Structures are given as structure tokens and as C-alpha cells.
Amino acid sequence: MALYVNTNVSSLNGQRQLMNSGTALDTSFKRLSSGLRINSAADDSAGLQISNRLSGQINGLNQGIRNANDGISLAQTAEGAMEEVTAMFQRVRTLAQQASNGSNTDEDRLAIQEEIRSLMGEVNRVAKDTTFGGQNLLDGSYSASFQVGADAVQTISFSMKQVGGTAGDSDHSLTANGGFTLSGMAAIASEVTGKALTDVLGAAGLSGLSAMDTAFALAGAAFSAANLNASAISVSTQVNAQLVMASMDSLIAVVDKKRAELGAVQNRFQSTIRNQSNIAENLSGARSRIQDADFAAETAALTRNQILQQASTTILSQANQRPQVALSLLG
């Protein structure tokens, strides 16, 4: 074999191998210290793009889950307020039933009427003052879409503007009638329940009541918002008390209808949360397989690269001494 002094090929080869093992060792250090297999685009350019796309979707799903939980909280707030409204209507119904009994005098009924008007005033206050994050829920104006998906226009919407029917249905709209106030619900009661006042009163209808006062006679077969106004509602006579009792049944039905809608949308949000939690979990697993470092494999690679670096250093030292053999030829 020829002996060269100016060009030490063995040394050059040792330097190259040492550089390669050093680069591999640096890669192992980065992966083990960060826990990531991909620390830069140079590590895996296609994998970096895929993992970033998965990260965007996972982040979107997790935020969508939080948004859906906010929707549940909002619906629960509205439904809780309406539960209290139902309780007040039940109390008014009981008082109206008491007032409709023949053992009471008109003076007795007036005393009962004071509590009824107080309760109905509270119904109106609840409708006006129930808010969530500064937004009024029961005044007939609330309608919103909740971004529950990872991508645009993946939403769940619900509205407090109407009870039953469809969006924009004027027959079921509360917007123009004060929302879930007493008069607002009374205005749509017959449309929502499908029953006029005569149906609620039974087969005898209005003719089954004697001495009906002029106000209720003018109301005809429909529920009248004016007659069920918080300050005007009256059980001062036996006839009026029976009409109020019949009216409460329909108002309770209106509230229960909306509470059922709110319960359904809460269940929908819960279903969305469960589904998206499952998707986010599976996507996280897929991203992990692309992006995360396998510590078992990386520690094995680290050990190998450390041994190779030590071996390359030893061989390079010996290769650098090899040209000295030429001195023995000169002696």
C-alpha cells in the first residue's frame, strides 16, 4: 500500500465519521431533552406539516368543547330561571283554585289577589333581569350560535325568541311581546298549546261560567295579554278566579315547552362534547406517533452514537499518527 504524507485519507475518513456520529449524537440530545422527534423541519418536513395540521384540529376541538360547556351553562341559567317561573305559576294556580271556591267572599279573594299580583310581578322581573355575561336571556331578544367544531361554521344554535315553531314564526314569537313576561307568554299560549281558552275550560266552554265580566267577554276564545297583566290579573270574583286557574295551565305548558327545548339543546351539547373528546383523543394519538420521541429507541441511539463517537476519536488519533511511519524510512 502506498504511503502518503500530504494527504492522510485515513484521517479524513475518521474526521468524517466523527462528524457524522457527532451530528447524530446532537440529534439524540435534542430529541431526549425536548421529548419530540421533530424539532425542526429538517427532522421530518412532511411530518412537521401533518403534525401542525393535527395540532390545529386538536386545539380547535378542545376549544369547541369549552364553548359547548359555555352553551350548557347558558342554557342551564335560562332553564333554572324558567323553573322558578313554573313554581310561581303553580302557586298562582293553587291560589286561583282557592279563590274560585264558593266558601270565599269577595274580600277573601282580594286578599288572595295581592299575593297573585306580587308573584306575577316577580315573573316579569325574572324575565327582564335574567342575564348571562351581560346578555338578557328571557326578554325575547337572545339568539346565538355556539362554535363547537374545530372548523368554521360547525355550530349549534338556539334561540329564546320563540317557543316551539321555527325561527321567524310570528305566531310563536316572544320578541314583540316582552319575552317571557306574563303578558308575552299569554300572547302566544293558544298557538303553542294548540288550545283556546274555551278548550281549557272544558266542554261547557265560556258558557259554563255565569256572570262573566266584560273584560273576559271581550277576550273571546283567545288568551288575552291584557287580562293576564301582572297589575290587572284578577281573582276578585269566582268567575275570574276560574279563568285565571285555567290560564295558568296553559302558561305552565308554554314554560314547560321551552324548558324541554333547552333540555334538548343541553343534551345535544353533551353529545357534542363526548364525540369531540373522543376525536381529540384519537387525533392526539396520531400526532404523538408522528411528533413525539420514542425514548426507548432514542436512548438506544444515544448509546450507539456515544460509542461511535468515542471509537471515531480513537481511530482518528491513530490515523493522524500513521504518516509518522515515513520518518523511519528517512532515518
From TrEMBL:
UniProtKB keywords: Bacterial flagellum, Cell projection, Cilium, Flagellum, Secreted
InterPro entries listed in its UniProt record: Flagellin, Flagellin_C, Flagellin_N
Mitochondrion keyword on record: no
SUPFAM superfamilies: Phase 1 flagellin (SSF64518)
Domain Flagellin N-terminal residue range list: 5-141
Compartments it resides in: Secreted; Bacterial flagellum
Keyword S-adenosyl-L-methionine: no
Alphabetized Pfam families for the sequence: Flagellin_C (PF00700), Flagellin_N (PF00669)
Major localization class: secreted
Function: Flagellin is the subunit protein which polymerizes to form the filaments of bacterial flagella.
Family as reported in the entry's similarity comment: Belongs to the bacterial flagellin family.
Protein name: Flagellin
